[in-house]
Amino acid sequence: MSTLDVTRRGLDVAALEQRMQHYVDGGFLPCIDTVILDGTEVVHRSTHGVMDLDAGTALRDDAIFRIFSNTKIVTSIAAMMLVERGLIGLDDELSTHLPAFADMQVLRPDATSIDDVEPARSPILVRHVLSHTAGLSYGFIEPLSVIDQAYMAAGVLRGSATLEELTAKAASLPLVYHPGEFWRYSVATDVTAHLIEVVSGQRFSTFLADEIFGPLGMVDTSFSVPADKRDRFVTMYDPADLFDPTVPGLTPHAGGMGGSYDDDVTFESGGGGLASTMGDYVTFIRMIVNGGEWNGARIVQPETLQLMRTNQCAPGVVVNFPMWSMPGTVFGLGFGVRQEISEGSPGASLGEYFWGGMAGTHSWMSPTGLSGLCFTQVMPGFWHPFSHEFRSMAYEITA
User: Fold this and answer.
1) How far apart are CA 36 and CA 27, in angstroms?
2) Exposure winner among 8, 59, 282, 360, fewest CB in 10 A?
3) Residue 31: which of 235, 278, 248 has the closest Cα?
4) What is the mean pLDDT of residues 254-271?
5) How far apart are CA 395 and CA 399, in angstroms?
């Protein structure tokens, strides 16, 4: 029996499967893979679409996806393993472990140049990098901003060859706000990955393989996709309209975020570098909803997971993106957390903890025991209508 075989049937999933197929048939998405869990039990799994539009090969059960920012949850779990071992403290100053982050400068609110700065009012703490409240940036979320222009010029994200190099470049630039005072999506999780390297004394990929992937049996999750697995690697596409996902039409991804995933990869991005299968990632989610243990392997303690899904943002600070509205969402240690029920959102989603990847790989877990995963490969595919519909319908059919 496959680890993703449906073990409890009886749900009326016809409307859900029809709606997901609509996104494929209409030319909005090349493929969709969906799973619903009740606790650790698979109560729904379906695949739609193709591995590659030209080849027309049906989406495989063991297809490999670029999971991009789903990597952040893995990295955060890895960091919390070191917290449990007493090697990192959440209230440690980041500069204790990464000295380049001492005596940081911060852009003034009305800065028109990268040199218009003031001293940081407080140091960056480890909990700040795990909750995206450190004051770091990404370099592409607001490409016309002073800080993102500086990140792009320095090649922080796309010019760095290693995690150590990225960390050095990010530390050499000002923060965009004072630590702990605002939420901004950033390279903080890549910095966390380098922190793991420094504290553990291991290359990041080695730590993940030894401490998480190996014990859980996640055999297809890595920063590279070897030659003998390339036929399982889903082609990534760009939509016809980057700003309107309701416009049909797909072309092979032409941007710079696809990555090579070759065997000699040097930049092991803790923020977005992993490739994985639905089966592997469901195993990872099962570990989380099962209190930190799966397949006989204890990864983290239940109280650690409870802390991770507890809001770490200061009062009034919420998750914010310039292009996506996420009302009522705060951030824990690696998870977005639904602190309030927004209009049209299922009542059972209160307290839901989640995150997803830029190319459309989403996962969410509810305190009720319901979890959902839906994967595609379109850039951008984060906060896409298909994932919202899947989530709403998953709650509806399991109510």
Assistant:
1) 24
2) 8
3) 235
4) 85
5) 6
